[in-house]
Amino acid sequence: MDLLVVLLLCLSCWLLLSLWKQNPEKGKLPPGPHPLPFIGNILQIDVKNIGKSLCSLSKTYGPVFTLYLGMKPVVVLHGYKAVKEALIDLGEEFSARGSFPLAERINNGHGILFTNGKTWKEIRRFSLMTLRNLGMGKSGLESRVQEEAYHLVEELKKTNALPYDPTFILGCASCNMVCSIIFQNRFDYTDQTLIGFLERFNENSKILSSPWIQVYNIFPALIDYLPGSHHKIYENLAYTKNYILEKMKEHQESLDTNNPRDFIDYFLIKKEQENHNQQLEFTCENLVATASDLFGAGTETTSTTLRYALLLLLKHPEVTAKIQEEIDCVIGRHRSPCMQDRSRMPYTNAVLHEVQRYIDLIPVDVPHAVTCDVKFRNYVIPKGTNILISMTSVLHDDKEFPNPEIFDPAHFLDDSGNFKKSDYFIPFSAGKRMCVGESLARMELFLFLTSILQNFTLKPVVDIKDLDTTPITNGFQHIPPPYQLCFIPL
Protein backbone atom coordinates (compact mmCIF):
# COMPACT_ATOMS: atom_id res chain seq x y z
CA MET A 1 0.00 0.00 0.00
CA ASP A 2 2.86 2.39 0.81
CA LEU A 3 4.31 1.80 -2.64
CA LEU A 4 0.96 2.62 -4.23
CA VAL A 5 0.75 5.90 -2.29
CA VAL A 6 4.26 6.85 -3.39
CA LEU A 7 3.40 6.08 -7.01
CA LEU A 8 0.22 8.16 -6.82
CA LEU A 9 2.12 11.07 -5.28
CA CYS A 10 4.77 10.87 -8.00
CA LEU A 11 2.10 10.75 -10.69
CA SER A 12 0.32 13.76 -9.18
CA CYS A 13 3.55 15.75 -9.03
CA TRP A 14 4.34 14.85 -12.61
CA LEU A 15 0.88 15.97 -13.77
CA LEU A 16 1.19 19.25 -11.85
CA LEU A 17 4.65 19.83 -13.30
CA SER A 18 3.33 19.18 -16.79
CA LEU A 19 0.54 21.69 -16.31
CA TRP A 20 2.92 24.24 -14.78
CA LYS A 21 5.25 23.97 -17.79
CA GLN A 22 2.35 24.53 -20.16
CA ASN A 23 0.76 27.48 -18.42
CA PRO A 24 3.35 30.32 -18.12
CA GLU A 25 3.21 31.31 -21.79
CA LYS A 26 -0.50 30.77 -22.32
CA GLY A 27 -1.37 34.29 -21.29
CA LYS A 28 0.82 35.63 -24.12
CA LEU A 29 -0.02 33.08 -26.77
CA PRO A 30 -3.20 33.02 -28.86
CA PRO A 31 -6.12 30.99 -27.47
CA GLY A 32 -6.64 27.36 -28.38
CA PRO A 33 -8.08 24.09 -27.16
CA HIS A 34 -7.18 23.16 -23.60
CA PRO A 35 -4.21 20.75 -23.57
CA LEU A 36 -3.96 17.57 -21.54
CA PRO A 37 -0.84 16.96 -19.43
CA PHE A 38 2.10 15.53 -21.37
CA ILE A 39 0.16 14.70 -24.57
CA GLY A 40 -1.21 18.23 -25.13
CA ASN A 41 -3.86 18.36 -27.90
CA ILE A 42 -2.73 15.24 -29.72
CA LEU A 43 -6.16 13.58 -29.25
CA GLN A 44 -7.82 16.49 -31.07
CA ILE A 45 -5.63 16.09 -34.16
CA ASP A 46 -5.91 13.47 -36.87
CA VAL A 47 -2.24 12.64 -37.46
CA LYS A 48 -3.22 11.14 -40.82
CA ASN A 49 -4.70 14.47 -41.93
CA ILE A 50 -3.26 17.33 -39.86
CA GLY A 51 -4.30 19.91 -42.43
CA LYS A 52 -7.98 19.03 -42.11
CA SER A 53 -7.71 19.11 -38.31
CA LEU A 54 -6.24 22.63 -38.40
CA CYS A 55 -9.03 23.85 -40.67
CA SER A 56 -11.62 22.40 -38.32
CA LEU A 57 -10.04 23.97 -35.21
CA SER A 58 -9.79 27.38 -36.92
CA LYS A 59 -13.60 27.51 -37.11
CA THR A 60 -13.65 27.59 -33.32
CA TYR A 61 -10.49 29.51 -32.44
CA GLY A 62 -10.01 31.81 -35.44
CA PRO A 63 -7.11 32.38 -37.85
CA VAL A 64 -4.41 32.44 -35.15
CA PHE A 65 -4.51 29.84 -32.38
CA THR A 66 -2.27 27.70 -30.19
CA LEU A 67 -1.96 23.94 -30.03
CA TYR A 68 0.19 21.84 -27.74
CA LEU A 69 1.93 19.00 -29.53
CA GLY A 70 3.14 17.09 -26.54
CA MET A 71 4.22 19.70 -24.01
CA LYS A 72 5.38 22.30 -26.52
CA PRO A 73 3.13 25.11 -27.82
CA VAL A 74 2.69 25.58 -31.55
CA VAL A 75 1.04 28.66 -33.05
CA VAL A 76 -1.13 27.91 -36.09
CA LEU A 77 -1.68 30.47 -38.85
CA HIS A 78 -4.80 29.90 -40.92
CA GLY A 79 -5.89 32.00 -43.90
CA TYR A 80 -4.16 34.35 -46.32
CA LYS A 81 -4.15 37.46 -44.12
CA ALA A 82 -2.47 35.78 -41.15
CA VAL A 83 0.03 33.92 -43.36
CA LYS A 84 0.96 37.07 -45.31
CA GLU A 85 1.31 39.12 -42.14
CA ALA A 86 3.75 36.57 -40.74
CA LEU A 87 5.78 35.33 -43.71
CA ILE A 88 5.85 38.53 -45.79
CA ASP A 89 5.30 41.53 -43.50
CA LEU A 90 7.31 40.01 -40.63
CA GLY A 91 9.45 37.78 -42.80
CA GLU A 92 12.66 38.03 -40.78
CA GLU A 93 10.94 37.34 -37.47
CA PHE A 94 9.21 34.23 -38.85
CA SER A 95 12.19 32.97 -40.88
CA ALA A 96 13.54 30.32 -38.49
CA ARG A 97 13.00 26.62 -39.14
CA GLY A 98 10.79 25.01 -36.55
CA SER A 99 11.60 21.85 -34.67
CA PHE A 100 11.50 18.69 -36.81
CA PRO A 101 13.26 16.17 -34.56
CA LEU A 102 13.65 13.34 -37.06
CA ALA A 103 15.18 15.63 -39.70
CA GLU A 104 17.45 17.19 -37.07
CA ARG A 105 18.83 13.78 -36.20
CA ILE A 106 19.33 12.97 -39.88
CA ASN A 107 21.13 16.16 -40.90
CA ASN A 108 22.76 16.95 -37.56
CA GLY A 109 22.68 20.71 -38.09
CA HIS A 110 23.81 20.62 -41.73
CA GLY A 111 22.17 21.43 -45.07
CA ILE A 112 19.60 23.99 -46.10
CA LEU A 113 16.16 22.68 -45.16
CA PHE A 114 16.45 22.21 -41.41
CA THR A 115 19.17 24.61 -40.32
CA ASN A 116 18.98 28.04 -38.71
CA GLY A 117 21.03 31.12 -38.01
CA LYS A 118 24.23 31.94 -39.86
CA THR A 119 24.64 28.45 -41.35
CA TRP A 120 21.21 28.56 -42.97
CA LYS A 121 21.62 32.11 -44.28
CA GLU A 122 25.04 31.42 -45.79
CA ILE A 123 24.06 28.09 -47.36
CA ARG A 124 20.77 29.44 -48.72
CA ARG A 125 22.43 32.54 -50.19
CA PHE A 126 25.12 30.39 -51.78
CA SER A 127 22.58 27.87 -53.15
CA LEU A 128 20.41 30.56 -54.76
CA MET A 129 23.44 32.22 -56.34
CA THR A 130 24.84 28.90 -57.59
CA LEU A 131 21.54 27.77 -59.08
CA ARG A 132 21.36 31.06 -60.95
CA ASN A 133 24.96 30.61 -62.15
CA LEU A 134 23.99 27.15 -63.38
CA GLY A 135 21.18 28.70 -65.41
CA MET A 136 18.06 28.43 -63.22
CA GLY A 137 15.48 30.62 -64.91
CA LYS A 138 17.77 31.05 -67.94
CA SER A 139 18.31 29.38 -71.30
CA GLY A 140 21.27 27.35 -70.02
CA LEU A 141 19.15 25.23 -67.72
CA GLU A 142 16.19 25.33 -70.09
CA SER A 143 18.16 23.37 -72.68
CA ARG A 144 18.78 20.63 -70.09
CA VAL A 145 15.08 20.43 -69.27
CA GLN A 146 14.26 20.27 -72.99
CA GLU A 147 16.78 17.44 -73.40
CA GLU A 148 15.20 15.54 -70.51
CA ALA A 149 11.73 16.17 -71.95
CA TYR A 150 12.93 14.55 -75.19
CA HIS A 151 14.16 11.45 -73.32
CA LEU A 152 10.89 11.33 -71.37
CA VAL A 153 8.84 11.34 -74.57
CA GLU A 154 11.04 8.65 -76.12
CA GLU A 155 10.58 6.42 -73.07
CA LEU A 156 6.81 6.93 -73.15
CA LYS A 157 6.78 5.82 -76.79
CA LYS A 158 8.22 2.49 -75.63
CA THR A 159 5.01 1.80 -73.68
CA ASN A 160 3.39 1.01 -77.07
CA ALA A 161 0.11 2.65 -76.05
CA LEU A 162 -0.47 -0.05 -73.42
CA PRO A 163 -1.81 0.68 -69.91
CA TYR A 164 1.02 2.22 -67.91
CA ASP A 165 1.63 3.67 -64.45
CA PRO A 166 3.69 6.87 -65.00
CA THR A 167 5.04 7.09 -61.44
CA PHE A 168 8.50 5.67 -62.12
CA ILE A 169 9.23 7.42 -65.41
CA LEU A 170 8.17 10.85 -64.12
CA GLY A 171 10.40 10.27 -61.11
CA CYS A 172 13.30 9.49 -63.46
CA ALA A 173 12.84 12.74 -65.37
CA SER A 174 12.65 14.90 -62.23
CA CYS A 175 15.55 13.13 -60.54
CA ASN A 176 17.72 13.49 -63.64
CA MET A 177 17.24 17.25 -63.57
CA VAL A 178 18.57 17.41 -60.02
CA CYS A 179 21.46 15.12 -61.01
CA SER A 180 22.37 17.40 -63.90
CA ILE A 181 22.63 20.34 -61.52
CA ILE A 182 24.55 18.57 -58.76
CA PHE A 183 26.75 16.17 -60.82
CA GLN A 184 26.45 17.59 -64.36
CA ASN A 185 25.24 14.28 -65.70
CA ARG A 186 21.99 12.42 -66.22
CA PHE A 187 21.26 8.69 -66.04
CA ASP A 188 19.61 6.34 -68.47
CA TYR A 189 16.19 5.35 -67.14
CA THR A 190 17.41 1.75 -66.72
CA ASP A 191 20.50 2.76 -64.72
CA GLN A 192 20.55 0.98 -61.35
CA THR A 193 21.91 4.05 -59.56
CA LEU A 194 18.93 6.13 -60.69
CA ILE A 195 16.54 3.31 -59.82
CA GLY A 196 18.17 3.04 -56.40
CA PHE A 197 17.66 6.75 -55.77
CA LEU A 198 13.98 6.60 -56.72
CA GLU A 199 13.21 3.49 -54.71
CA ARG A 200 14.68 5.09 -51.59
CA PHE A 201 13.05 8.48 -52.18
CA ASN A 202 9.64 6.84 -52.63
CA GLU A 203 10.08 4.69 -49.53
CA ASN A 204 11.19 7.66 -47.43
CA SER A 205 8.26 9.74 -48.67
CA LYS A 206 5.83 7.05 -47.52
CA ILE A 207 7.55 6.67 -44.15
CA LEU A 208 7.76 10.43 -43.48
CA SER A 209 4.06 10.78 -44.22
CA SER A 210 3.02 7.94 -41.92
CA PRO A 211 1.13 8.68 -38.68
CA TRP A 212 3.91 7.09 -36.63
CA ILE A 213 6.42 9.65 -37.84
CA GLN A 214 4.08 12.46 -36.77
CA VAL A 215 3.96 10.86 -33.31
CA TYR A 216 7.75 10.46 -33.20
CA ASN A 217 8.21 14.14 -34.03
CA ILE A 218 5.83 15.15 -31.25
CA PHE A 219 7.57 12.87 -28.75
CA PRO A 220 11.18 12.90 -30.00
CA ALA A 221 12.50 10.83 -27.09
CA LEU A 222 10.82 7.85 -28.77
CA ILE A 223 12.94 8.20 -31.90
CA ASP A 224 16.14 6.91 -30.37
CA TYR A 225 14.74 4.15 -28.20
CA LEU A 226 11.88 2.52 -30.08
CA PRO A 227 12.11 0.35 -33.19
CA GLY A 228 10.26 1.51 -36.26
CA SER A 229 10.33 2.54 -39.90
CA HIS A 230 12.22 5.75 -39.05
CA HIS A 231 15.41 3.69 -38.85
CA LYS A 232 14.90 2.75 -42.50
CA ILE A 233 15.01 6.46 -43.37
CA TYR A 234 18.56 6.63 -41.99
CA GLU A 235 19.60 3.71 -44.20
CA ASN A 236 18.00 5.14 -47.32
CA LEU A 237 19.55 8.57 -46.85
CA ALA A 238 22.93 7.00 -46.17
CA TYR A 239 22.77 5.50 -49.69
CA THR A 240 22.27 8.93 -51.26
CA LYS A 241 24.81 10.67 -49.05
CA ASN A 242 27.48 8.04 -49.71
CA TYR A 243 27.00 8.48 -53.45
CA ILE A 244 27.28 12.26 -53.11
CA LEU A 245 30.42 11.81 -51.02
CA GLU A 246 31.99 9.64 -53.73
CA LYS A 247 31.15 12.25 -56.36
CA MET A 248 32.61 14.98 -54.16
CA LYS A 249 35.92 13.10 -53.97
CA GLU A 250 35.95 12.65 -57.75
CA HIS A 251 35.27 16.37 -58.20
CA GLN A 252 38.10 17.29 -55.83
CA GLU A 253 40.55 15.40 -58.04
CA SER A 254 39.38 17.01 -61.30
CA LEU A 255 38.39 20.47 -60.02
CA ASP A 256 39.16 23.46 -62.24
CA THR A 257 38.45 26.57 -60.17
CA ASN A 258 38.17 28.68 -63.32
CA ASN A 259 35.53 26.44 -64.91
CA PRO A 260 33.04 25.09 -62.35
CA ARG A 261 30.82 22.42 -63.87
CA ASP A 262 28.05 21.90 -61.33
CA PHE A 263 26.83 22.51 -57.79
CA ILE A 264 29.56 20.36 -56.23
CA ASP A 265 32.30 22.30 -58.03
CA TYR A 266 30.90 25.65 -56.93
CA PHE A 267 30.67 24.42 -53.34
CA LEU A 268 34.23 23.10 -53.31
CA ILE A 269 35.52 26.41 -54.67
CA LYS A 270 33.58 28.30 -52.02
CA LYS A 271 34.85 25.91 -49.35
CA GLU A 272 38.45 26.60 -50.35
CA GLN A 273 37.85 30.37 -50.31
CA GLU A 274 36.12 30.37 -46.94
CA ASN A 275 38.67 28.09 -45.28
CA HIS A 276 41.19 30.93 -45.60
CA ASN A 277 38.71 33.17 -43.77
CA GLN A 278 38.12 30.49 -41.11
CA GLN A 279 34.43 30.18 -42.04
CA LEU A 280 32.83 26.96 -40.80
CA GLU A 281 29.69 26.88 -42.94
CA PHE A 282 31.22 25.43 -46.12
CA THR A 283 32.27 21.99 -44.95
CA CYS A 284 32.11 18.56 -46.55
CA GLU A 285 29.25 17.68 -44.19
CA ASN A 286 27.29 20.72 -45.34
CA LEU A 287 27.94 19.92 -49.00
CA VAL A 288 26.63 16.36 -48.65
CA ALA A 289 23.62 17.44 -46.58
CA THR A 290 22.72 20.34 -48.89
CA ALA A 291 22.98 18.21 -52.03
CA SER A 292 20.85 15.56 -50.31
CA ASP A 293 18.24 18.20 -49.39
CA LEU A 294 18.11 19.39 -53.00
CA PHE A 295 17.67 15.79 -54.14
CA GLY A 296 14.78 15.07 -51.83
CA ALA A 297 12.98 18.38 -52.35
CA GLY A 298 13.53 18.51 -56.11
CA THR A 299 12.55 14.99 -57.11
CA GLU A 300 9.47 13.85 -55.23
CA THR A 301 7.45 17.08 -55.31
CA THR A 302 7.81 17.75 -59.03
CA SER A 303 7.17 14.16 -60.11
CA THR A 304 4.11 13.88 -57.86
CA THR A 305 2.70 17.14 -59.27
CA LEU A 306 3.18 15.88 -62.84
CA ARG A 307 1.59 12.55 -61.98
CA TYR A 308 -1.38 14.34 -60.49
CA ALA A 309 -1.61 16.64 -63.53
CA LEU A 310 -1.93 13.67 -65.88
CA LEU A 311 -4.68 12.18 -63.72
CA LEU A 312 -6.64 15.45 -63.75
CA LEU A 313 -6.26 15.73 -67.52
CA LEU A 314 -7.64 12.21 -67.89
CA LYS A 315 -10.60 13.21 -65.76
CA HIS A 316 -11.16 16.41 -67.72
CA PRO A 317 -10.60 15.64 -71.44
CA GLU A 318 -12.07 19.02 -72.41
CA VAL A 319 -9.17 20.68 -70.57
CA THR A 320 -6.66 18.44 -72.35
CA ALA A 321 -8.20 19.31 -75.72
CA LYS A 322 -7.86 23.06 -75.05
CA ILE A 323 -4.20 22.69 -74.07
CA GLN A 324 -3.44 20.69 -77.21
CA GLU A 325 -5.25 23.28 -79.32
CA GLU A 326 -3.05 25.96 -77.74
CA ILE A 327 0.05 23.82 -78.40
CA ASP A 328 -0.93 23.47 -82.07
CA CYS A 329 -1.43 27.25 -82.43
CA VAL A 330 1.67 28.43 -80.57
CA ILE A 331 4.25 25.62 -80.84
CA GLY A 332 3.10 23.27 -83.56
CA ARG A 333 4.29 19.69 -83.95
CA HIS A 334 7.80 20.18 -85.33
CA ARG A 335 9.78 21.96 -82.62
CA SER A 336 10.27 21.49 -78.90
CA PRO A 337 8.36 23.69 -76.45
CA CYS A 338 10.38 26.50 -74.86
CA MET A 339 9.78 28.82 -71.93
CA GLN A 340 9.04 31.78 -74.21
CA ASP A 341 5.92 29.89 -75.29
CA ARG A 342 4.39 30.08 -71.81
CA SER A 343 3.53 33.79 -72.05
CA ARG A 344 1.59 33.06 -75.25
CA MET A 345 -0.26 30.09 -73.74
CA PRO A 346 -2.50 31.56 -71.02
CA TYR A 347 -4.79 28.53 -70.81
CA THR A 348 -1.93 26.04 -70.34
CA ASN A 349 -0.38 28.36 -67.75
CA ALA A 350 -3.72 28.57 -65.92
CA VAL A 351 -4.07 24.77 -65.94
CA LEU A 352 -0.61 24.29 -64.40
CA HIS A 353 -1.43 26.82 -61.66
CA GLU A 354 -4.78 25.18 -61.04
CA VAL A 355 -3.17 21.75 -60.75
CA GLN A 356 -0.84 23.00 -58.01
CA ARG A 357 -3.64 24.88 -56.27
CA TYR A 358 -6.11 22.01 -56.43
CA ILE A 359 -3.82 19.21 -55.29
CA ASP A 360 -2.51 21.26 -52.33
CA LEU A 361 0.58 19.05 -52.31
CA ILE A 362 1.87 20.05 -48.86
CA PRO A 363 -1.23 20.89 -46.77
CA VAL A 364 0.85 22.10 -43.82
CA ASP A 365 4.15 23.83 -44.54
CA VAL A 366 7.34 22.50 -42.96
CA PRO A 367 7.37 24.09 -39.46
CA HIS A 368 8.63 27.64 -39.07
CA ALA A 369 9.73 29.27 -35.81
CA VAL A 370 10.12 32.85 -34.62
CA THR A 371 13.64 34.26 -34.28
CA CYS A 372 12.74 36.54 -31.34
CA ASP A 373 9.81 37.48 -29.12
CA VAL A 374 7.24 38.71 -31.64
CA LYS A 375 4.17 40.85 -31.05
CA PHE A 376 1.68 39.41 -33.48
CA ARG A 377 -1.74 41.03 -33.53
CA ASN A 378 -2.74 41.11 -29.86
CA TYR A 379 -0.43 38.32 -28.77
CA VAL A 380 3.23 37.82 -27.90
CA ILE A 381 4.88 34.76 -29.40
CA PRO A 382 8.07 33.84 -27.48
CA LYS A 383 11.34 33.30 -29.34
CA GLY A 384 11.73 29.76 -30.66
CA THR A 385 8.00 28.95 -30.70
CA ASN A 386 7.06 26.65 -33.57
CA ILE A 387 4.71 28.04 -36.24
CA LEU A 388 2.47 25.85 -38.40
CA ILE A 389 1.27 27.35 -41.70
CA SER A 390 -1.98 26.00 -43.16
CA MET A 391 -1.29 26.01 -46.89
CA THR A 392 -4.74 24.55 -47.55
CA SER A 393 -6.41 27.61 -46.03
CA VAL A 394 -4.70 29.84 -48.62
CA LEU A 395 -4.81 27.66 -51.74
CA HIS A 396 -8.44 26.68 -51.07
CA ASP A 397 -9.73 30.09 -49.94
CA ASP A 398 -13.33 30.21 -51.21
CA LYS A 399 -13.36 33.99 -51.63
CA GLU A 400 -10.32 34.02 -53.90
CA PHE A 401 -11.16 30.71 -55.62
CA PRO A 402 -14.92 30.09 -55.91
CA ASN A 403 -15.70 26.41 -55.35
CA PRO A 404 -12.10 25.65 -54.32
CA GLU A 405 -12.71 21.89 -54.15
CA ILE A 406 -13.45 21.85 -57.88
CA PHE A 407 -10.69 21.63 -60.47
CA ASP A 408 -11.29 24.69 -62.66
CA PRO A 409 -8.58 26.50 -64.71
CA ALA A 410 -10.90 29.55 -64.78
CA HIS A 411 -9.59 30.30 -61.28
CA PHE A 412 -6.54 31.74 -63.07
CA LEU A 413 -8.22 33.31 -66.11
CA ASP A 414 -9.92 36.68 -66.47
CA ASP A 415 -13.09 37.30 -68.47
CA SER A 416 -11.05 37.78 -71.65
CA GLY A 417 -9.22 34.47 -71.28
CA ASN A 418 -5.94 36.06 -70.20
CA PHE A 419 -3.86 34.53 -67.44
CA LYS A 420 -4.68 36.04 -64.05
CA LYS A 421 -2.15 36.05 -61.22
CA SER A 422 -3.17 35.51 -57.60
CA ASP A 423 -1.31 36.41 -54.41
CA TYR A 424 -2.96 33.35 -52.87
CA PHE A 425 -0.95 31.03 -55.13
CA ILE A 426 1.81 29.91 -52.74
CA PRO A 427 2.48 26.19 -53.40
CA PHE A 428 6.21 26.90 -52.96
CA SER A 429 5.53 28.65 -49.63
CA ALA A 430 6.33 32.35 -49.16
CA GLY A 431 8.82 34.65 -47.49
CA LYS A 432 12.41 33.86 -46.65
CA ARG A 433 11.88 30.09 -46.49
CA MET A 434 10.21 29.67 -49.87
CA CYS A 435 11.55 26.92 -52.11
CA VAL A 436 14.96 27.72 -53.65
CA GLY A 437 14.15 25.55 -56.67
CA GLU A 438 10.85 27.21 -57.60
CA SER A 439 12.07 28.43 -61.02
CA LEU A 440 13.38 24.96 -61.93
CA ALA A 441 10.15 23.29 -60.83
CA ARG A 442 8.00 25.69 -62.86
CA MET A 443 10.22 25.11 -65.89
CA GLU A 444 9.97 21.32 -65.55
CA LEU A 445 6.19 21.36 -65.11
CA PHE A 446 5.64 23.46 -68.23
CA LEU A 447 8.17 21.81 -70.56
CA PHE A 448 7.50 18.22 -69.49
CA LEU A 449 3.71 18.51 -69.66
CA THR A 450 3.59 20.39 -72.98
CA SER A 451 6.08 17.93 -74.50
CA ILE A 452 3.89 15.00 -73.45
CA LEU A 453 0.69 16.57 -74.80
CA GLN A 454 2.46 17.61 -78.01
CA ASN A 455 3.24 13.96 -78.72
CA PHE A 456 0.46 11.90 -77.13
CA THR A 457 -3.24 11.59 -76.62
CA LEU A 458 -4.01 10.53 -73.05
CA LYS A 459 -6.42 7.60 -72.89
CA PRO A 460 -7.90 6.40 -69.59
CA VAL A 461 -8.01 2.70 -68.83
CA VAL A 462 -11.38 2.98 -67.07
CA ASP A 463 -14.46 5.11 -67.67
CA ILE A 464 -13.66 8.70 -66.65
CA LYS A 465 -16.67 8.58 -64.31
CA ASP A 466 -14.74 5.98 -62.30
CA LEU A 467 -11.55 8.05 -62.10
CA ASP A 468 -11.08 9.35 -58.58
CA THR A 469 -8.98 12.51 -58.26
CA THR A 470 -9.50 12.94 -54.52
CA PRO A 471 -6.09 13.36 -52.86
CA ILE A 472 -4.86 10.58 -50.63
CA THR A 473 -3.81 12.29 -47.44
CA ASN A 474 -0.92 10.50 -45.79
CA GLY A 475 0.13 12.91 -43.06
CA PHE A 476 2.74 15.06 -44.78
CA GLN A 477 1.52 15.46 -48.35
CA HIS A 478 -1.33 14.83 -50.75
CA ILE A 479 -0.69 12.18 -53.39
CA PRO A 480 -2.92 11.03 -56.26
CA PRO A 481 -4.67 7.67 -56.14
CA PRO A 482 -2.85 4.97 -58.15
CA TYR A 483 -3.90 4.80 -61.79
CA GLN A 484 -2.81 3.75 -65.26
CA LEU A 485 -3.26 5.38 -68.66
CA CYS A 486 -2.35 4.82 -72.28
CA PHE A 487 -0.05 7.23 -74.14
CA ILE A 488 -1.35 7.16 -77.72
CA PRO A 489 1.19 8.68 -80.18
CA LEU A 490 -0.18 11.53 -82.28
UniProtKB/TrEMBL annotation:
Class of enzymatic activity (EC top level): oxidoreductase
Cellular compartments per GO CC: endoplasmic reticulum membrane
GO function terms (MF aspect): heme binding; iron ion binding; oxidoreductase activity, acting on paired donors, with incorporation or reduction of molecular oxygen, reduced flavin or flavoprotein as one donor, and incorporation of one atom of oxygen
PROSITE patterns named among the record's database cross-references: CYTOCHROME_P450
Matching PANTHER family: CYTOCHROME P450 2C18 (PTHR24300:SF423), CYTOCHROME P450 508A4-RELATED (PTHR24300)
Family membership: Belongs to the cytochrome P450 family.
Cofactor: heme
Protein's organism: Suricata suricatta
Topology within the bilayer: Peripheral membrane protein
Protein name: unspecific monooxygenase
EC number: 1.14.14.1
Signal peptide from the UniProt entry: 1-18
SUPFAM superfamilies tied to this protein: Cytochrome P450
Keywords, sorted A to Z: Endoplasmic reticulum, Heme, Iron, Membrane, Metal-binding, Microsome, Monooxygenase, Oxidoreductase, Signal
Predominant location category: endoplasmic reticulum
A single GO BP: xenobiotic metabolic process
InterPro entries: Cyt_P450 (IPR001128), Cyt_P450_CS (IPR017972), Cyt_P450_E_grp-I (IPR002401), Cyt_P450_sf (IPR036396), Cytochrome_P450_fam2 (IPR050182)
Binding site for heme: 435
Gene: LOC115273354
Subcellular location: Endoplasmic reticulum membrane; Microsome membrane
